[in-house]
Amino acid sequence: MSEKDQYRNRIELLQGTLDMLILQTLQWGPQHGYGIVQALRLRSGDVLQVETGSLYPALHRLERQGWVQSEWKQSESKQRARYYRITAKGKKQLASDLGRWERIVEAIGSVMYLKPEESES
Amino acid sequence: VKWFPSFGFQRRKRELQEEIDAHLQMAIADRVERGEKADAARQAAAREFGNILLVQDVTRQMWGQGWLEQLGRDARYALRQLRKSPGFTITTTAMLAVAICANSTVFSWIDGTMLRPIPGARDTGDLVSLQRGERSFSPVPPFSYLDYRDLREQNHTLAGLLAYHHDWITLTGGAQPERAYIANVSANYFDVLGIKPMLGRFFLPEEETRPDAVPNVVLGYALWKMRYAADPAIVGKSIEVARHPVTVIGVAPQGFVGAMPGLRQDLWITLNPLGTNVWRMTHRSAGGAVWLNVIGRLRPGVSRDQAAQDLDTLMHHIVAAYPDDHLGENRITLDPMWRSPFGANGYMAATLPILLAFAAVVLLLTCANVATLTLVRFVARRRELAIRQSLGANRMQLVRQMVLEGVILSIVAGAAALMLTSWTSKTFAWFFPANANPVVLNGTMDYRVVIGIAVSSLLAGMLCGGLPAWRSSHAPAVEVLKAESASISGGSRNRKLLSGLVVAQIALSLPLLLCCGLFLRTLRNLAGANPGFEQAPILTASVGTNIVGYSRDEERVIRRKILDRVSALPGVKVASFTDWIPMTLSHKGEDAYPEGYVPHPHESLQVYHAEVSARYFESLHIPILEGREFTPDDDEKAPRVMIVDQTAAKRYWPGQDPLGKKLMVWGRPFTVVGVAKNSTHMLMNESPEPMVYMSFFQQGYETIVQVKAEGNPVDLAPAVENAIHEIDARLPVFDVRPMRESTQIASSFAVIESTLAGMFALIGLVLAATGIYGVVAYRTQMRTHEIGVRMALGASRVDVLRLVLLQGLWITGIGLALGLAFALGLTRIIARLLYGIGANDPVTLVSVVMLLGAMSLLACYFPARRAMRRNPVSAIREL
Fold it and tell me: Which of B248, B265, B571, B793 is the most exposed place for a label (fewest CB within 10 A)?
């Protein structure tokens, strides 16, 4: 597969979903930036590719908002890296983000799968 | 970290770098593990990561501290832009520096005088000076001791009330006698002012009126340092004042020079130190007992009006209890120290704020000029701005950057102005010629001046950077880039702004020029005016007969000897005595009760007075209209006689013969023996006050020898001084100078006004002329192509000339019209300061308008001539 094709197979992240995805990733344990990219890629089956140009600004913004905390730690491969951990406040935010997401999916779904006869009634 | 955002910023920047490095390392490690070669893995990881710098940049913006870094970056960019055009940078910085310096200089003078009325005193804003009777521009001491004491003890609104009286005295006992300004003060004098002694103590309440065999004295810092060599053990030592031994009890701290703004007191003593003031301490009447200047400190929370009411009520009670001692008007009014009529601040408050307003106009004018230049520069740079805009810079960023250029210019200008002002603030003293008062007037350079400079330079920066920046950023990038190819000038909106700025410059410089013209003509009128006496051949010399401790009889003998000796000197036409020199900003005043005269309610009975000897009027060429002049026989044994001036005669005895009428002064009747023609007392533009002359040998206090010379009066000075010293070598002789020199101080404020207004007007004229030249030249250059086309189509050179001239003249016309309206409003403020000329003097007005019009015509003519002479072919080619 050429790189262009690869790119086409990915889905542009919806506005506001990146925060939710990062927080969700951190639910499974503290992780560094590279780890978050890898985790999202693996779990989405290579579909979601987070741009570093979006990831790091997002992480720093989340930290400023108090939804994640960071600390410098050694990784298993002896690499010193900055690990992000979700905070209690972040968990609350995640729950509300998730709720909102579900409503959007539902709303979009009901538009997309609308049966013709229902629209007439 | 919070306190030093830049340190935290550097640390976080490092951490971000490390975080991104770690990311890349892990990505490379993963790829190598999957079997890629190290080089290929590194490249792939970097490619995958993307633009590292961009990622860092965007991430940093999330920190909310990026503005600091952005500001630094913008500042660097602005500096680079300014370095690229050194001509613009240097010119505008210099113009702004001069304009800011004009403001800060005048402000430093205000700061040193009106804002620091009593150096060293605590909270001078709470201090008020008391005036009794009709308000006067230069009042004499208004209170007797008993009145003062009643006010002090019975008021409910003051935290303290002090009183003082000052005069010259001679310090004897050292190798060299020395004249010093001494003040008799109430015991609470230092306490009310909030001054703590540097050495020893100040006066105790029981010492206030108590005579002592050896009185106590407090030395001023400068006197202690100069005459007593800063002796640290001076307290308790005995020194000599006017040949009386006194004991030093304390030394005042450095910087404190007394309670009268603008005058320096050298030492302080109680109110009745020798017991010679007993009469003054026990009487209320105007017969010499009214001798104290009084300053109060308001209680916290009490307003000046409340205190005035309180004191006025008290004064009413006093007047009711002692009506005979308080004839005439007795209303009490209070003034804050910054405009207190006692001392220099009355004059300052009338002059300096107006000059500051002029300086502000100069600054505005300069801002308009710099804004014009900046706008032209931004128009020239519009391509650069458009490109940056299309590359993603938003308008805020562009405006910020352009404003920053203006702010940087003005900060540098402010720094230059700061350095200049530290010198110019001290030039204030130059305006005050040598005179008989211990004047200490100068500007100061303190934090208030620095804040003033900072504020005005920032405002200037915003004005001259902000306006053009806001305008330039409005140009849509696409059109600018397209328009560039068609060589259109900066757009009609820019053209309007440019014209508006030039109109503003002309409109602002016209009032400056007009005021300058009025002040200069005032100065000329003052110099040419006839004060009513002839001063050119007169030399005066003060002799300290009253301040060295002679007895009355000794003094009388010495005075006679002096007159005889000086009269006999070769080159002396007439010698006489006086105790006052007119037009030296000082005068003596006393309440006088004319026989048979019923004063109007609230009329002040105060008259100016002077004690003069025989031949005084002759030597000054003041005509005696009726009766006679004084003779040597009008001495202490003869009946008291008086000569009144026309004003006094007309006021007190209208339609009657004043000769033979009587006037009570100091409780004694004086018989009028002559009427003198009016002459100037204080200032040329004063309203005439009644003046009475008394015989020197009956009432004279200070001794001033007045000599009419045959030639130049200066040449007589050494001979006169020698003649006096031959009589008694210990006699202090001082202030020996031609009368013309002494009276210069009366016009010193006119000199200050016209000097500054002249400089400001010159700046205004140059700025307005260069402003209009710059804009017309610029716009003509922008229209070169159009002019070429016009000429190719048959327009004559005269047509081109008219085209260019007309656009400049339109601007000039509008500017002049606006300026005229502004000027006529402004001159009303200075009307009080003018002499011999109306505030709307048509001649000055017309000549100023013509001058400004001619300058702008000239400024338009040069670009017009250049355009006219262009070869149309090359003009068309020029895009």
Answer: B793
| Contacting residues for A21 by C-beta, under 8 A, at least 6 apart | A13, A40, A48, A50
**Does residue B467 contact residue B399 with C-beta atoms inside 8 Å?**
no
CA distance B92 to B368: 11
pLDDT at residue A120 tops 50? no
> B267-269 and B572-578 as β-strands: parallel, antiparallel, unpaired?
unpaired
Residues contacting A42, CB < 8 A, separation 6+: none
Token pair in block for residue B521:
């003509």
In this structure, the strands spanning B178-185 and B199-200 are unpaired
What's the token pair of residue B200?
Answer: 């020893």
Q: How far apart are CA B698 and CA A17, in angstroms?
A: 106
Give tens-digit pLDDT for B403-419.
Answer: 888 889 999 999 999 99
8 Å CB contact between B641 and B724: no
A75 chain-B contacts, CB cut-off 8 A: 26
Length of chain B: 879
How far is B269 from B218, CA to CA, in rounded Å?
Answer: 6
CA distances from B259 to A11, B125, B300 (A): 84, 14, 21
Contacts of B25 in chain A (CB under 8 A): 79
Give yes or no for a contact between B158 and B312, defined as CB atoms under 8 angstroms apart: no
B443 phi and psi, to 5 degrees? -80, 160
Chain B neighbors of A32, CB-CB under 8 A: 19, 22-23, 26
Interface touch A64/B18, C-beta < 8 Å: no
The Cβ of residue B598 has, within 10 Å, a number of other Cβ atoms equal to 6
Largest Cα–Cα distance in chain A?
Answer: 65
Which CA distances in Å does B410 have to B17, B103, B505? Answer: 37, 14, 19
pLDDT, mean of residues B79-95: 90
Interface of A with B in 92-121 (CB under 8 A): none
Among the residues of B783-796, which ranges form H helices? 784-792
Q: H/E element holding B643?
A: strand B641-645
Q: How far, CA to CA in Å, does B24 sit from each of A33, B307, B751?
A: 10, 79, 77
Q: Is the pLDDT at B510 greater than 70, yes or no?
A: yes
Rg, chain B, Cα only:
37
- Residue B868 and residue B788: Cα distance in Å, rounded? 10
What band does B469 get if pLDDT is binned at 50, 70 and 90? confident
CB pairs under 8 A between A and B: 60
DSSP bridge partners of A81: A73
Lowest mean pLDDT among B131-145, B152-166, B482-496, B846-860: B482-496
**Pairing label, strands B606-612, B691-695:** parallel
- Residue B126, token pair as written in the block: 């709470």
- Is the predicted pLDDT of residue B229 greater than 70, yes or no? yes
Contact A82/B15, CB-based, under 8 Å? yes
pLDDT digits (tens, 9 = 90+) for B642-675: 999 999 999 999 888 999 999 988 878 999 999 9
User: What pLDDT does B4 receive?
Assistant: 46
Task: Kindly list the distances between the CA atom of residue B46 and the CA atoms of A117, B21, B25, B26, B527, in Å, as whole numbers in the listed order.
Answer: 54, 10, 10, 11, 86
Alpha carbon distances (Å) from B705 to B171, B563, B693: 22, 8, 16
- Return the amino acid letter for B264: R
C-alpha dihedral, B624 to B630 to B631 to B632, nearest 10°: -150
Tell me how far apart the 2 most distant CA atoms of chain B are, in Å: 132
Q: Which residues of B touch A64 (CB under 8 A)?
A: 62-64
HSE of B43 in the Cβ direction (CA atoms, 13 Å)? 4
Q: Residue B730 has which token pair?
A: 């210990």
List the single residue in A32, A60, A79 with the smallest CB-CB distance to B59: A60
Are B610 and B579 spatial neighbours (Cβ–Cβ below 8 Å)? yes
Reading the block at residue B644, the tokens are 């009144």
